[in-house]
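for ur thesis appendix - Mitochondrial group I intron splicing factor CCM1. copy paste whatever u need, i formatted it the way the template wanted (i think)
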Amino acid sequence: MFKLLKRSQTVCQRQKQLLRSLNTRGLQEDRTKKVIEEIKKLEYEMESKIKTKNASFERVDEQDIAAIYKEISAPIPIRPKISPDYLENLRLKFLDTRSTEQLQTPVSVSQLTSSEPVTQTSNQPIAAAAAAAAAAAPTMQDLTLTDFEQLIYANALAKRPKEAEQAFDLMEKYNVTPSIRSVNHLMDAYANTNNIEQTIATFKRLDELNLKPDIYSYGSLIKAFVASKRLEDAFIIFEKMKKTAMIPSQPIFANLISGCLKADRVDKAWEIFDSMRLSFHQPDEVSFTLMLHACAKRGEVEKALNLFEDMAKYQLYPTDVTFNVLINACAKRPDYYVEAFSLLDQMQDNYGFQPDKITFNTLLTACARKKDLGQARDILRTMWVDFEKNGSHSLLAPDNQTFTNLFWCYASYIPKGKVQQDKTAANNSTDISTEVQLLPLEIPNKRNKVVKEAQWLFDQLPNFEVQMTPALLTAYLALHISQKQTGACIDVYHKKFDQFGVQKDAFTFYHMLQYCYHNKDGKMAWKVWEDYQDFLEARRSEEINAGTIIEKKAKEAEQHMLALKEGWTNAQQQKMAALMANTLARTDDLKNAMSVLASELRRSSTMHPPRLRDMMPFYNKCIQLEDLDTKRELVYVCVKDPVRLANSKYQRVNRID
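the 3d part is after this line
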C-alpha cells in the first residue's frame, strides 16, 4: 500500500510539471503572435508614408468641390419604358411576306373559288358585279356549279342572304346538285347578318342533301353563335368539331377569341389563344391584334409589348389597327403616358401609318387619365383643323366619342392657379386660319373657367353633327360635378337629357349619387334613387318570354351585353346600393340607409353582400350616433374582410362585432 501511494504521488507531480510546461509554451506562442502583428502594422504604416511622399496630389479648390457635389446630388434621369427607336428596331424584323404580284394585281370575282377572299376591283358593289356577270351569260343553262357557288359567295360577302337563297334555289331548278361549298356559302350569308335560326336550318340541310359538314360548315356555325352573343353554344360546337378529328382553322379561333373579349371573359380568350398556339396553328395578325386588345382591357402593357415582339419573330406585318390597339394599351396606364405618344410618332415615321379618328380618341383617354388638358386641347385642335380643310371627307372629324373623352379630360383636370399658355397653339396660331373659332391660347386656371370653356365646346357640337349619347351627356355632367359647380349639376341632370331626348343610364345615376354623397344632399339622393329604380324596372320588364330555346338564349345574351354597356350588372347594382346607403348615413338617416341595403340584397338572390370596408362611412356614422342596433345589423349583413395573420400581433383590442 505504501508503495502504491508513493507511485501515485510521483505520477501527480509529473502531470503538474507537464501542465506548467504547456502553459508556458502557450504564453510564449501568444507573445510571438502579437509581436508579428505589431511588426506587420509598422511595415504597413511605413509603406503608406513612403507612397504619400512620392505621390503628387493636386489641391482641390472650392469650384471642384461644388462640381462634385452637383454631380452627386443631380436627379437620376427617368429612362423611358419604351425606347425612342423601339419600332425602328422592330421594323427590320417585320417582313411583308406578300409577293409584289399579289399587292399589285387585284383578283376579279370570276377568277375566285369559293374559299378565296374577294378583292373589290371598282366602286361597283360586289353583288352588282356578280349579277352583271350572271346577266352577261348566254343562258341560265350554261351556268355551272362553280358559277352558282361564286354567286352565292358574292351575296354572302355583300350581306344579302335573300339573294343568296334565291341563287341556291335556282340550282335545283336547273338540275345542278348543290355542293358542300354552296351550302357553306349560304350559311355564311346568314351568319354575316346574325340570323342564327336560318344558319342552323341551313346546317341541317346537309343531312337532307347527304353531305357531310366540313371545317367551313362548323366555322360558319360558330361565327353565327358568336355574333348572336351565344358564346357557350359556340364552344359546344367547337368541342363537337374537335371530336370529329377536324383541325380548327385560324378564323374559328379568332371568332371565339373575339366573342370572349366582347363578353369580358379575358381569361377564356387567353386559354383559347394558348391552345391554338401550342397545339394547332401559329397565330396570325388578327389573333395577335385581338390578344393585344385583351392586354389593353386590363392595362397589361408589358405583356402587350412582348406579344408585339412575338409578331416580329413570326414575320407578321402589323397594320394600323395593330398600332391603335398597342397605343390603347399604353393609354390605359398613366405611367405609360409618354410612351403612347412616342408610339404615335414612331408609327408615322417608321411605318408610314397615318393616325385616324380612333387613334386620337384613344390618346384623349390617355390625357384624361393623366389629367393633361393642354395635350387634349392640341389633339382636338388637330382634328378640328383637318375637318375644316376636308369637310365631309375628313377622316379626323370629331364624333361623340371624341367629345365624350374630351369632357372627361375637363373633368379630371386640376387647375394650377397660374395662367398657362398652350405652346403648340401659340406656334400654330399664325399658320392656320379657320372659319370656326378655336380654343383660346391660355389654358383655364380656375374651375369656373374650365367649366365655361367646356360649355362653349358643348355649344359647338351641332356644327359637327355630333349625336347625343348617354355617355356624352354623362361625361358632361361629371365635369360639372368634379369642378364643383353645384347649381349647374342639377340643371344638367334635370334638363339636358330631356332637351336632347337622351335616356339616362346607370352610370349617370351613379355619378349624380356621388354628387349627393359629397354634398350631403339627402333629398336629391332620393330623387336620383327613384329614377334609378324606374330605370331598372324598365329593364326588368323586358322579361324573357320567348317561345323557343334559341330565342330565349339570344335574349339572355342581349340583356347581359346591355347590362355591361349601361352599367346595371349585379356587381354594379351592389355598388350603387352601397353608395346610396352611405349617402343616407351621411345625412344621419341610418334607418332608411339600412332599409335600402337590406331590400336590395333581398330583391336579388345573385347579388353578393357588400364588404364592410366599403360601408365604413355608414359604420362610422353608427358609432358617432351611438346606434348599436343598426351597427350590429350592418355588420351582420356585410361580408367581413379576411383577417391578415401576419398582422395579428398588432390587432386592435376593440372588435367591430
